[in-house]
Design goal:
heterotrimer, A mainly alpha, B alpha/beta, C mainly alpha, B: alpha/beta, D-Maltodextrin-Binding Protein, domain 2, globular, C: 72% helix, membrane (chain A), MetI-like_sf (chain A), Sugar ABC transporter permease (chain A), transmembrane (chain A), cell membrane (chain A)
Chain lengths: 291, 436, 283
């Protein structure tokens, strides 16, 4: 196509200029500033001094950081598959037009419009000892209530439950959309072969929406690595740090301990991890779909 | 040129503002909770109960008395220092902020607070009018960096109705309280056997402050000089181990509630779910009010005592206090004067604040007949002598508190051996203090 | 405007009765916490103090809601959230549409390079820039302003990426015809191309609005004055004071009240949101 009007012209760049300004000033510049900051011993209230890579070595040697890293990886490793599997299940179940299914679709997406503080408040009311919904139910049936928010193991689980409840809408919707794109004749052929439901699922449906599964997984990995509000508001990272995610570590180091140089170093490490995780996932799965 | 223009505009704007309505606006930021639903319009301070109610109505009263001053109150999540840090960093600090004595040295040493001696002087409030403990709390390098408001400690809040049932009441009607670690456990077991309820109500979940305060108290009672060097804590000591072992025993011997957070523990005691709540002075007013209501678990059966001396070396309780500080910022002379008036008002009404249960910071309050008439104050009067804080030079006391709370909490709840927890708390705190 | 309706093919073999029952069970888990919240909100704080199982018994009361109307700051927070989320969304729509058009349909020097750099921005998490941004905004005195709350969102690369994809999908002959009429580039963009992207605008707008509405960390450290709190931060500030504050019933009522606007907007635009979300996926 040799359209003359598509000739390269500087003036065409004017269309992207406004965005580019914001991009440079609010993203690129702070990103490099953050890297610069991570090489300094600085507090919130004034300039610091250059310390080289000390912040990075200290962060990597900090048992609290390592614990937070482990918590975050466990959280991602459990919550992302849960979101994908449940989302897929719901999409398969609700992939038809009836009154009931459209009600359910609306219901499962509705939690996504709530803000994190409302979500955590709701789930705190469920999990808090003594007054919580689960405590009340446990007592009704004669069980000893579990202190969900303050028992190690359960606390991260509780944060995860609230997160899945909150985030399930988007995966479900994306899967539903993908299911609509599966060519109908594939199913018709399968019906002629008298293929079982399971066979149809594994041989036709899943391969057809493989790209969406990868997309949803990557989106969720990136999102869930940034877990912060739920943990801070529900468990405050406790007990003994077993539900403290990486972002909360960054927040604490920067704004509680005033050590923003180290906070910046930790956030660069998080950035790297997210990048690697998303890319690894993408490469692995794109290879799988090719094979 | 531009500058001149700006100044002119600013001057004009200010002149206009001044002539239009001579309002002086000050921003006050505090914790102590929000209770506008109940106290939003109350100006009769004496009718208010509890920290939140009393401070809210105090400010309302000040507003009513000074119609020319607008006090804009922001309530922050306790203790609010994260937010204050963000504000200070962004140059948007409030005019007056509630601050623990234990946090002042962090901000003062970084040059973020104004000394208030002069300001108090102009209002006729002399440093000598405060108790020694309160003045020491705000005194850094020979100057006062805040208006002292109170002193507080953790206490044993006692449900006498349950103690009677447990046979833990003396002939004179006072509760039988332990005088050693073993007695604590023994009486706890007796209580549990007789009443079927836990002896202690402790804040063991989602909290770090309570663990730390109890640990400090037990360390002090053993005369352990764990902060001999304010830049280095010593926790790998037999004293620290004994203290944490005792805290752990209250859980492993099943004489304490477990899994209650701050809120749940407060209401658990109010509902009579246990014998003794280990909590602060600030609840006395609330609990006294409840004990006056028939039909409640505490009806005519509430009493309160300092944490008993459970170790031989000395009687001691960890103490801290609340103050009002002025972050460094540009203020108009009118604003400074308004803050001075507010400080004077708060000092004058320290008795009202003392009704919460806190010890007054203003000496004269102790001699007031109204104060002497307040219930329970004889029992706890001695904390004025036995209350001890950390050395004033120790920085980042709140960060230290979260580390200790986290590690000791892990030990008490059985997630970590006691020695490991103390070792890791020590190394984490020293890493923090060594890297300031 | 044409509204592409998603039709769910009735003959899909994937949906079956047992699956539907499974979804019904999950929907109970979905609703139970909300029902509990509503239950708490219509009990008096005194009753709840005695034990929250009183939710299952009479009497119920609206006193918590009345208290909100009298004293709570929820209204102010709500207004702030609406202003910030709306401004944020409009900004993103304008910037992304312009940039998306530029990247997708025009040629200029370094177009490819710049686009790749912008795409790279997709991968930068908020945490990596937030501390530096906070310092920057301090110097510019932007904290505790609406602008300061909106601006960081303008740099998001997601919208640009999405709009570029949409503009690319529009057949070439449409603007070619217009060009023959000697229309200016901006006129083509404004009169011809933009109307074609309305569904995409809706998708991006809804995503951006919900994202802005739910933003937590940035307003937490930027809006530190009570009158500038967004709903998210306001609720957080009262939630952590639990016992010392108004009590469970009041908190629950506040949460119900605060989520109403989002839920109402959702119910009104539900069909459109579903279309938008699905539309965003079909790429």
């Amino acid at each position: 196509m040799a359209e003359s009007y598509r000739r390269s012209q500087w003036s065409h760049g004017l269309f992207i200029l406004p965005y580019l300004c914001f991009f440079l000033v609010l993203l690129v510049f702070p990103l490099f500033w953050g890297m610069w900051l991570s090489l300094h011993k600085a507090d919130l209230f004034g300039p610091g001094r250059f310390v080289g890579l000390t912040n990075y070595t200290r962060v990597l040697a900090d048992p609290v950081f390592l614990q937070a890293l482990r918590n975050t990886i466990i959280f991602v490793a459990v919550s992302v598959p849960a979101l994908v599997v449940i989302g897929l299940f719901l999409a398969l179940a609700l992939n038809r037009t009836t009154r009931a299914t459209s009600f359910f679709r609306g219901l499962f997406f509705s939690s996504s419009v709530l803000s994190v503080t409302i979500v955590t408040l709701i789930w705190r009311f469920v999990f808090i000892p003594g007054d919580g919904l689960l405590a009340v139910l446990f007592k009704q049936v004669g069980l000893t209530p579990i202190s969900f928010l303050s028992t190690s193991g359960w606390s991260l689980f509780s944060v995860g439950a609230a997160t899945v409840w909150w985030c399930i809408g988007l995966p479900m919707m994306l899967f539903l959309a993908a299911l609509q794109q599966v060519p109908q004749d594939l199913y018709e052929a399968a019906a002629l072969d008298n293929a079982s439901g399971w066979r149809v699922l594994t041989r036709i449906t899943l391969p057809s929406i493989a790209r969406t599964i990868v997309l949803v997984t990557i989106i969720q990995i990136v999102l869930q690595f940034q877990l912060f509000g739920q943990a801070q508001l529900m468990t405050n990272g406790g007990p003994s740090g077993t539900s403290r995610p990486l972002v909360m570590y960054i927040y604490e180091v920067g704004f509680v301990r005033w050590d923003i140089g180290r906070g910046a170093a930790a956030s660069q490490i998080l950035f790297l991890i997210i990048l690697v995780a998303a890319m690894a996932q993408y490469i692995v799965s794109s290879r799988k779909t090719e094979a | 040129m531009k500058r001149i223009l700006m100044t002119t505009v600013a001057a004009l704007a200010m002149g206009f503002a001044a002539s239009a309505h001579a309002q002086t606006k000050i921003e006050l930021q505090r914790f102590f909770g929000a209770c506008d639903a109940d106290y939003g319009k109350v100006t009769d301070v004496s009718s208010a109960v509890g920290e939140c109610g009393i401070i809210t109505s105090l400010i309302n009263k000040f507003r009513a008395d000074n119609p020319d001053i607008t006090v804009n109150v922001t309530t922050v999540e306790w203790p609010g220092y994260d937010q204050l840090n963000a504000q200070l960093a962004s140059g948007a600090a409030p005019d007056v902020v509630s601050m623990h004595y234990s946090a002042i040295s962090d901000y003062q040493s970084r040059g973020l607070l104004e000394p208030v001696d002069k300001l108090l002087g102009t209002q006729g409030v002399s440093p000598a009018s405060f108790t020694d403990a309160a003045r020491a709390g705000v005194m850094k390098e020979g100057q006062m960096y805040g208006l002292p408001f109170d002193n507080w400690t953790m206490l044993f809040h006692v449900n006498m109705n349950l103690m009677k049932k447990a046979g833990l009441v003396n002939a004179d009607g006072t509760p039988v309280l332990p005088t050693s670690a073993d007695e604590l456990i023994a009486q706890g077991k007796q209580f549990k056997e007789k009443t079927g309820k836990p002896y202690l109500i402790q804040i063991l979940a989602n909290e770090t402050a309570s663990y730390t305060r109890v640990l400090y108290t037990f360390l002090q009672q053993q005369k352990s000089d764990f902060f001999a060097n304010p830049k280095q804590i010593k926790l790998k000591t037999p004293e620290a181990k004994a203290a944490v072992e005792l805290m752990k025993r209250t859980v492993s011997e099943k004489i304490s509630t477990v899994g209650l957070d701050y809120a749940a523990s407060v209401s658990a005691f109010a509902n009579g779910d246990g014998g003794i709540a280990v909590n602060g002075t600030w609840l006395i007013g609330d609990y006294v009010a409840q004990s006056k209501k028939e039909g409640t678990a505490l009806a005519n059966g509430y009493s309160v005592y300092p944490i008993p001396q459970l170790f031989k070396a000395q009687d001691s309780t960890y103490a801290d206090g609340h103050s009002w500080v002025m972050p460094k910022k540009n203020r108009t002379p009118e604003q400074v004067q308004a803050i001075g008036k507010l400080f004077k008002f708060l000092a004058d009404n320290d008795f009202q604040w003392a009704r919460t249960g806190h010890l007054p910071a203003v000496k004269a309050v102790f001699d007031k007949p109204e104060f002497k008439a307040l219930p329970q104050r004889d029992n706890i009067a001695k904390i004025a002598q036995t209350g001890r804080s950390l050395p004033a030079e120790v920085q980042r006391q709140f960060a230290i508190q979260s580390i200790i709370g986290e590690e000791v909490g892990a030990a008490v709840n059985g997630d970590k051996p006691v020695d490991d927890a103390l070792a890791s708390a020590e190394s984490r705190i020293n890493e923090l203090l060594g890297d300031l | 405007m044409r509204e592409p309706e998603v039709t769910y093919k009735p003959e899909s073999l994937t949906a079956s009765r047992p699956l539907l029952w499974g979804a019904a069970v999950l929907s109970l888990i979905m609703m139970a916490p909300v029902a509990w919240l509503v239950g708490l909100s219509i009990k008096s704080n005194q009753d709840l103090m005695m034990g929250t199982d009183s939710v299952f018994r009479f009497p119920y009361t609206l006193v918590n809601y009345l208290n909100i109307l009298h004293s709570s700051q929820v209204f102010g927070w709500l207004l702030n959230s609406v202003i910030v989320a709306t401004g944020h969304t409009l900004g993103v729509l304008v910037l992304s549409s312009l940039a998306g058009y530029g990247f997708a349909r025009l040629e200029f020097p370094f177009r490819r390079t710049v686009f790749v750099i912008v795409l790279f921005g997709l991968a930068v998490p908020e945490q990596a820039v937030i501390i530096a941004r906070h310092q920057m905004f301090s110097w510019l005195n932007l904290h505790n302003t609406y602008l300061g709350l909106m601006l960081p969102g303008f740099s998001s690369a997601f919208g640009v990426f999405l709009m570029t994809q949409f503009f690319r999908a529009i057949p070439k002959d449409i603007d070619e015809a217009a060009l023959l009429d000697n229309a200016s580039q901006f006129r083509i963009f404004w009169k011809i191309m933009l109307p074609l992207t309305l569904p995409a605008q809706a998708t991006l707008g809804i995503f951006t609005f919900l994202g802005a509405w739910n933003d937590y960390w940035w307003p937490l450290i930027s809006a530190t004055r009570k009158e500038m709190y967004t709903l998210t931060i306001g609720i957080a500030s009262s939630q952590t004071n639990f016992a010392q504050s108004e009590g469970l019933g009041f908190l629950a009522a506040q949460a119900v009240f605060a989520s109403l606007p989002a839920i109402i907007v959702y119910l009104i635009f539900q069909r459109h949101i579903v279309t938008a979300v699905s539309g965003g996926a079909v790429k």
